Amino acid sequence: MPSTNNVRHVCLVFLAVCGLMLGTRLGFLERWMSGRAAALAAAVKAHFRAQRDSYYGAPLWKFAPTNLYRTFVKSEETIHMIISELMEEAMSRTTGAAQDDGMREIFLNILSNPELDARDKKAAVIDFITAGIETLANSLVFLLYLLSGRPDWQERIRSELPVSKRLELEDLSAATSIRDATKEAFRLLPTAPFLARLLDKPMTLAGHRLPAGTFVLAHTGAACRREENFRRAREYLPERWAGGFEPHSPGLVAPFGRGRRMCPGKRFVELELHLLLAKIMQQWRVEFDGELDIQFDFLLSPKSPVSLRLVEW
Ligand code: HEM
């Protein structure tokens, strides 16, 4: 009866996101994982918290180097240092070596492109890794937690998967219960519960005239919890996605944003979550005692380490 917790989720997600970004099979990373993953995860968390406090608190940091400002800078430096190390290792490891991994085409080609400025390349990789770790780890915890309250849906997922351990892409596409479970988790507990935009031109919203430069937050997460938008809005009901639950406003579920600035990690994340869930459900059911405490860390995050039980079927 293994149990799983946040640190392991973050490590798993760290491996997956770095694998995507640095294009490697990650054997080299695993030896180094625990120390660096934990330091990076902690720095990313501190960074998100400092962002939250600078958005919503008194902006004293604009006038003096407050504690908040120092935390922000320190976390940014740690993130920068660890990811720089990983990038240099990825670059030196692959110089001249043939990579069998298709992901190389995406990121290492960007990193080794002499026409791009080195600082821009590094900043892009840092952005991707920091944007990907905490979001994906939280989403996985929320999904498993919500499913722990729906043993019947877990049975359903299992029944849609092949009995053998081997999983093909078609098996994932055929298992609609996995897709519905994930979508419903994103509706009820979206780790990014709002979208932010700075207006580049004036606009009128619900009768309010907003000048260019206004900072606008669209609280999609709050809208998804309103009865006028979703029937039994506060319940985790994956079955609503098969139809028959009115009102139902799927357009409000925007966990990855919308438009030009939409999350570039969306496809990767969906595949990763579907695959992880399928692999888990093939072998175990998930249990959790009590209610999960959630806090707003700029992202929605579990308040403390989460212990979920994975019980052999
Ligand atoms: C469950 C996981 C994730 C969630 C919920 C999520 C959500 C979001 C959201 C809501 C945005 C803002 C979109 C907008 O304003 O319209 C965003 C932006 C972004 N995400 Fe993700 N994300 C996730 C994972 C990832 C991963 C794995 C990566 C990279 C591998 C990533 C990279 C980025 C980047 C670089 C941006 C900024 C895009 C821009 O400003 O143009 N995200 N994400």
UniProtKB/TrEMBL annotation:
Protein name: Ecdysone 20-monooxygenase
GO MF annotation, one: iron ion binding
Source taxon at top rank: Eukaryota
Family: Belongs to the cytochrome P450 family.
Cofactor or coenzyme needed: heme
Keywords: Heme, Iron, Metal-binding, Monooxygenase, Oxidoreductase
InterPro entries: CYP11_CYP27_families (IPR050479), Cyt_P450 (IPR001128), Cyt_P450_CS (IPR017972), Cyt_P450_E_grp-I (IPR002401), Cyt_P450_sf (IPR036396)
Matches recorded under SUPFAM superfamilies: Cytochrome P450
PANTHER family on file: CYTOCHROME P450
Positions contributing to heme binding: C263
Organism: Papilio machaon (Old World swallowtail butterfly)
